[in-house]
Structures are given as C-alpha cells and as structure tokens.
Design a protein that fits this description.
Layout: E1 2-8, H1 15-28, E2 33-35, H2 46-53, E3 66-75, E4 80-88, H3 91-99, H4 104-112, E5 115-121, H5 153-168, E6 180-186, H6 193-196, H7 200-207, H8 209-218, E7 224-230, H9 243-248, E8 255-257, E9 263-264
Parallel strand pairs: 1-4, 1-5, 5-6, 6-7
Antiparallel strand pairs: 2-3, 3-4, 7-8, 8-9
Helix pairs in contact: 5-8, 7-8
Bound molecules: guanosine-5'-triphosphate and magnesium ion.
Amino acid sequence: MTRSVLLLGESDVGKSHFGAQLLGRLNQEAGALRMVGAAPTLQPFEAVVASLNRGLSAPHTSRDLYVESCWPVGDRDGNRMDLVWPDYGGEQLSTIKTDRRLPRAWTERVNSASGWIVMIRIGNAQLSDDVFSRPLGPASGDVAGERTFSISQQAGIVDLLQWLMFVRRTGSLARVAEPILLLLLSCWDELPPAQIASAPRQVLLSRLPMVSAFVEANWLPGSLHVMGLSALGRPLSDQVADEDYIDRGPESFGYVVLEDGCQDPDLTLAVRAFT
Ligand SMILES: Nc1nc2c(ncn2[C@@H]2O[C@H](COP(=O)(O)OP(=O)(O)OP(=O)(O)O)[C@@H](O)[C@H]2O)c(=O)[nH]1
Ligand SMILES: [Mg+2]
C-alpha cells in the first residue's frame, strides 16, 4: 500500500530539517515506525544530513525543486506501507497562495494524498491587532485610507484549507474523515518557557484561535491531529558548529510534542497517524 503525504509549509518552517531527521529516525529502527526492506538513498536530504552531522544548520531548498522520496516503512505489528515524503522550496506554496492558482501537479497531490500536514512555525505565529488591542479611529494614529489591507496569517491558513477542501471535494456539510489533517507546530523549542510545557492544542488555541476553531469545526475528531515538533531540539547556526551535535549525533536531538503535551524523541510518531 502506498500512502502519500501532502506536506504544506511555506519557506523556513523546517520542512527539510524535519525530513532529514525523520529519515534518520526511520533508519535507526528504534521508533514506532522503521524502514523495512532496502534502505533508500539519503537523497534529497543528503545536504541537510551532512550539515547536521557537522553541527550546522542547512541552507534553504531551491525554490523550483519538488522531489518525492518513497520510504518503505513498517510498524512493530508488521503493517507495511510506502510513505511518499516530499521536499520542496516553500516559495512554491507562497506563490500558490498569493497568485490563487493551483498548478496541475499540486491539484493531483491534493487529491491523491492520504493525509495533509500543515506545518506552522508556531513561535512566529501571533494574533494580529484587532479592535481591542488597537482601537480604530484617530487614537490609533492612522490616517483614514492609508493603511493597506493584508490578510492575517490565520486567515491565510484558513483560506488555504478551504481552498484545498474545495479542490478535494470534501464538502462542508459533514465533517471531514479523509484526508487526515495534522497541524504540525514546528520549531517548538522557540516558544516562550511558559508555553513549552503546554499541550499543542492549547498553544494553537492561544496563538491561532481562528485556525483552531476552523479545523475543530470541519474535521472529525479522529481525523484531526495537532502536534508539536522540534526537529532539531534547539537552534543551530549555519556558521558556528554545535559541538554537542557532532559528539552525540543528530539522532540524539529533536522531539515531537504529543497531544497530551509530553515530549517524545521518536519523531516517527508524527507520521504514525498516516499509516
Ligand atoms: N530552533 C529550531 N530551528 C529549526 C528547527 N527546524 C529547523 N530549524 C531552522 O529553521 C530554518 C528553516 O528550516 P528548513 O528546514 O530549511 O525550512 P524549509 O521549510 O525547508 O524552508 P525552504 O527550504 O525555504 O522551503 C533553518 O535555519 C533551521 O535551522 C527546530 O526544530 N528548531
Ligand atoms: Mg527546505
């Protein structure tokens, strides 16, 4: 059985570093999911793996690239499948959102994927000003008509999801069972200390309440997952090597935050829902 995942994330959310770390964990064969059969090549995550082994952060993915890796994975109960995992330059998704045009290849991906993962760098997500935090009128210092309108980050995510639901023809009368939706809140280690120990749904609710309300209203509870992810476990520089990474290896770093708020170093738990 082949299960492909539609990974949706704009530039800089951590798609490539997660892909490289996930591949490492699958090959390590110590987690819930493991590689079975012939070990696939490291391509296209070779450069990221090499950087991480040197304790460095890797460069961005070229904007025109879209590659899929096919990973034969299995669990402890003997269930097997081919996980098709993409990596691409996140500008492609930004262009889709701003041009409001879905290329044919993307339409096919939206329709054939067993699951959608929306990756959001949660530390960067904030509520924008509203009438309570920034009153309208002269007190706000705005001259009427001068402020240019831009859609909020939350509205952008909801808009994208609505559009994909339309393309997939999920309908909106009944809550969605397929595709499974995972909101993956990435770079979890960047959150302020007060939020790091919270459950991912709690953090989503306080940082992106509209997205939270939209997905809760539109997906069946069993088909909706919200998880935290720190693929690297800590920030890495692209100049100064992290000696700990070199000594202990990238496989000793990174964790997922499960729905109850517990951290688990088994990154394969993030994709178990799709198997
Ligand atoms: N603190 C922290 N930084 C991270 C983590 N994962 C990735 N990063 C950093 O985030 C930046 C972007 O990561 P990438 O994996 O290149 O992001 P991407 O989504 O592939 O971006 P594009 O290739 O441009 O689409 C890099 O500087 C990484 O070092 C993490 O778990 N924690
Ligand atoms: Mg990338």
